[in-house]
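Write out this protein's structure.
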Amino acid sequence: MTRLLTLLAIGYFVWQFVKNYLNKQEIRQKRQSENNRQSPLAMVQCQYCRVHLPENEAVAAGNNWFCGSEHKALWLKSQQG
């Protein structure tokens, strides 16, 4: 009888441990999926060719945005003369 109660107690604790571990894994996965969601990127327009692109990929010159350094140089050149 003592053996049976001991086995039941061990089984209960193992079950609780596994259940707790799985719950923690589920919470961790939910947090990771929430962190992986990207917020919308701000879009800017190239002053030279009028193409829209994400702000983090654009080249800035003052308040103006460009799709690359070549268009930035061309636009600045056209503004000078």
